[in-house]
Write a structure and sequence with these properties.
Layout (H helix, E strand, L loop, with lengths): L9 H6 L10 H8 L4 H12 L12 E6 L5 H20 L12 E7 H7 L15 E6 L2 H12 L4 E9 L7 H14 L2 E7 L10 E7 L16 E9 L5 E8 L2 E4 L24 H6 L1
Parallel strand pairs: 1-5, 1-6, 2-3, 2-4, 4-5
Antiparallel strand pairs: 6-7, 7-8, 8-9
Helix pairs in contact: 6-7
């Protein structure tokens, strides 16, 4: 079968014609480009130059976190980001208009390989405010996990969604990533997708992280005790923030940037303990 294309009319051809060069040649083009003032250029790049930090109220609704499955840094970092965002939404961040704490459920989706590599969330190890709010979904395949994630971000009764998918499955292509971004932005439910042992392929995620476990600061009361969770986080793609690298720590349920490296020779703080009584009785120490 042959399909003939009718000739375009003169009006249609005019619509696709290339406009003539402005008078003055290159000078006219330069004058047109000069209409973009330095102020306009600065306004266009202002958002890109903004530095990310915890507690911001304009976080994207779709983020990806790349991490190794061996140290469980990805799941911990995703949970820390989620709690930071929930605190801001609940009025404990920068927004003075938000007053009500978000007590909605949190959906956590894992495919089977992610569970085999890093395990399930342990209820007793979760923050106290999330232990009775977590809904865990074990998906057999990456396709099932993506379906559960998309259904989760479409549900406004959820506070947020956390997902864990291992490797680079064929189902998680740019189209699937785009579907997650559009659904999250349409319904206002944030998604943090942890990519375990995966390469940073093409994605529509608005913010992408590469994280690994970092040394913790020694507790002041015991230099040999384990410290709070810490991560070496590199933001390598973001729509509204410049790339950067930080050491982040989750101290007292607050995510913050650690300014200095931990010292291995930290002196324990024993000011709240009993003072030494070498050579003296307790009664003599009490009278002193």
């Amino acid at each position: 079968m042959t399909i003939s294309v009718p000739p375009r009319s003169a009006t249609a051809l005019d619509a696709f014609s290339v406009p003539s060069r402005p008078k003055g040649g290159g000078a006219g083009i330069r004058r047109s480009a000069a209409l973009l003032s330095a102020k306009d250029i600065a306004a266009l790049s202002k958002a890109r130059e903004a530095r990310w930090r915890p507690g911001l109220s304009d976080q994207p609704l779709h983020s990806e976190i790349f991490a190794h499955a061996d140290d469980a840094s990805g799941a911990g970092f995703a949970l820390a980001l989620a709690r930071d965002a929930l605190k801001v939404a609940g009025g404990q961040g920068e927004d003075p208009l938000a007053e009500v704490e978000d007590r909605r459920q949190v959906l956590w989706v894992q495919d089977r390989r992610a569970i085999q590599r890093s395990g399930r969330p342990f209820r007793a190890g979760l923050p106290p405010d999330l232990r009775d709010r977590l809904i865990h979904v074990e998906a057999k395949t990456p396709e099932d996990a993506l379906f559960a994630l998309e259904e989760g971000v479409r549900c406004r009764d959820l506070a947020c969604v956390i997902g864990e998918i291992t490797g680079n499955p064929r189902a998680l292509d740019f189209t699937a990533s785009r579907r997650l971004s559009l659904a999250a932005e349409k319904h206002g439910v944030a998604l943090w997708l942890v990519r375990l042992d995966a390469e940073a392929d093409l994605s529509s995620a608005r913010m992408r992280w590469q994280v690994e476990a970092a040394p913790s600061v020694h507790p002041r009361w015991n230099a040999e005790a384990p410290g709070v969770a810490a991560w070496k986080a590199r933001l390598f793609r973001a729509r509204a923030h410049a790339p950067g690298e930080w050491i982040l720590s989750d101290d007292d349920a607050n995510l913050h940037i650690r300014r200095s490296a931990p010292s291995n020779a930290a002196t324990p703080d024993i000011g709240h303990l009993v003072r030494p009584t070498v050579g003296r009785s307790l009664a003599a120490v009490a009278r002193a």
